[in-house]
Amino acid sequence: MPQLTERQITLGEILSKRTREGAPELYDKLENEAVRCYSCGHRCKILNGLKGICKVRYNEDGVLKVPRGYVAALQVDPIEKKPFFHAYPGALALSFGMLGCDYHCGYCQNWVTSQALRDPVAGASPTDLEPADLVKLAKRHGAKVITSTYNEPLITSEWAVEVFKEAKKAGLVCSYVSNGNGTERVLDYIAPYIDLYKVDLKGFDEKHYRDLGGTLQPVLETIRSLKQRGIWLEIVTLVIPGFNDSDHELTNIAEFLAGVDRDIPWHVTAFHQDYKMTANANTDVGTLVRACEIGKRAGLRYIYPGNIPGGFGDREGTHCPSCNAVVVGRHGFRVTSFRLKDGKCPECGTPVPGVWGDGAAVGRDGIPRPVFSLS
Question: Would you identify the CATH topology of the domain 70-301+357-370?
Fold first, then answer.
């Protein structure tokens, strides 16, 4: 009988060969070989032989098996694409992702990886790599930062921590780009290795969150917890006409963030029709300007419109909260100027919160590029 090729084997079977036991910090063993997983806010109780909501963490004879040892997406990005605007402007980030997500957003721009276990049209496949390989790639491409992204990193936290342990030894900055649907246990687990964390706060309406496959409260708790832990945090809200763009909802988001810390950068970014959401209009400049004004009224000091490069004058730049001088200039993902002196405004000396570098990367092209091979 001829051997089956990997193409003829289901994706689930392929991924089952690339697993390890979940970290004991992230699951409990229950009666009758069931387990409780704490990698995300769903806190799935998983019976023997079944998978969690994410479809990549599963119970095998009372042992939680989790992803390990591969990537399904790999790219070198400007850090501004993550987006982090108050961390190492102009730096490059080696971005890696696995497969799977605990949400099923109809507008997901990374659906080929995040929905690969739910949608047969999603065609991403794994490439075997070890943590040392990823660190080697980051160094080769001049990346200062390494980022777990493209799928939901919380559900693959064991792999991210394994990678980040190697990355820290090499002096790299480690970051998550996440939906924020966390638990205290997973944040405890990753916190020693995480420097930067971006949360997608997708709205402030419980029904909207349920439509996406989650609930709002765990995300709010994650935002508070990250701030309390001293991890540098930035928030993104993709502003979608007819979904989350009302003054009421945007005001609720802005007031919540200001109540946590007025210095949290809030990115309000433009929606473009994607995946299954093609009926909603693309976001225009005026909508994002309105969101920025709402954020300002709520007391937020750093609000950035995005995804329409050049559409907002100097609003893409970072301004001093005291004298309004542009201290970091930007156009899209390109840093055009860096004027901070020891993290302070050169005009009036006001500190600007962030994890700032030395501005040596000003003028970098700002173009994401794929990483094709290890050779």
Answer: TIM Barrel (3.20.20)
